[in-house]
Amino acid sequence: MAEAPVISIVVPCFNDEEILPQTLIRLHAAAQATGLSYEMVLVDDGSGGRTWEIIAAEARKDARVRGVRLSRNFGHQRALTAGLERARGSEILVIDDDLQDPPELLGVMLAKRAEGFDVIYGQRRSRAGETWFKLVTAKLFYRLLRYLAEVPIPPDTGDFRLMSRRAVDAFLLLPESSRYIRGMVAWIGYPQVGVLYDRQPRKAGKSNYSLRKLLHFSADAIASFSIKPLRVASLASAGLIGTAMLITLWAVVTWPYHREVRGWTSLIVTILFVAGVQTLILGILGEYIGRLFIEVKRRPLYLVRQDTSVDEKH
Predict the structure, then answer these.
(1) What share of the chain is helix, strand, coil (3-state, %, to 5)?
(2) Distance from chain centroid for Cα 243
(3) Distance (Å, whole) CA 43 – CA 232
(4) Would you list the domain boundaries of the chain?
């Protein structure tokens, strides 16, 4: 068996064929600048187009590159997990394929690693090319998650990070299906530190995260690391009961002036009190129960269609 490389670079790929060749050039250059041995694990998350063709060609050309093709699109977090499970290095860099996160930060991260940190995460100082809506909602989401989560999850971070071997091994012990990796990495502990950088706009193509995917991802993050939403149901119930009482009071006060609408008060109070409270509570419970349902089935996180290192097809 070949000697394990010092650095593993794990790259989940999905429909970024326009930028992928440039990404590979910069990744090779950044890794070679360290002077350490390295490998790349490129995971094609069920892309269309030429993504797998580019990955397979790079693997044939360079023995340091391994391509893994999933059987379908399982999602960014599972594709990233597939790469981490195959990484052999003592230092593992996780980076997306769109070049919004600079590979050249690898040297800075390795310097922090030498100081004894097990996880060095990229923390966004600015986000060029983002819409005001995405900037505002991202800022609010990270602050909300920081308040709700039971473990401190650094704000303004993605999955761009360098991890030690022991940190990756600890992460791989976590089996959940609803994966919010930056939260899972925070949960494992060990010394962690952020490195500030300016996130660049996409060089080509468009984001693969639709609003629906972002909402689902946010729900996974909150449900995976907090039970506070369950407690919110009780507070919401109190609020709705208070609203019903105010409406009742208003109806009593205005009754002498003959402004009441017959039957309106009882109908509105009933709807607010019963339908509102029950619907809210059922919705919150449904989010948690749905995730329990998925977990107990114990399906594999992903299936592999092709792997250039073993040349197998499933």
Answers:
(1) 50, 20, 30
(2) 37
(3) 39
(4) 7-208, 228-297
Cβ-contact 265, 251 below 8 angstroms: yes
Which two structure tokens, joined as six digits, stand for 20?
């992928």
Contact call for residues 51 and 16 (beta carbons, < 8 A)? yes
**pLDDT tens-digit profile of 214-272?**
555 566 656 565 556 666 666 666 676 777 677 777 767 766 666 555 666 666 666 76
Half-sphere exposure of 73 toward its Cβ, with a 13 Å CA cutoff? Answer: 11
The answer to whether residues 179 and 220 touch, using CB atoms and an 8 Å cutoff, is yes
Q: Give SS3 for 77.
A: helix
The more confidently predicted of residues 267 and 186 is 186
Which range in 19-28, 142-151, 213-222, 279-288 is most confidently predicted, on average pLDDT?
Answer: 19-28
pLDDT of residue 312 exceeding 50, the answer is no
What is the chain's mean pLDDT, rounded? 78
The closest alpha carbon to 265, from 252, 275, 278, 279, belongs to 252
Cα separation of 78 and 21, whole Å?
23
- Cα Rg of the chain (Å, integer): 24
Sort 255 into a burial class: Cβ within 10 Å, 0-12 / 13-18 / 19+: exposed
**Residue with token string 């890794």:** 31
CATH architecture of 7-208: Alpha-Beta Complex (3.90)
Place of tokens 């650094």: 154
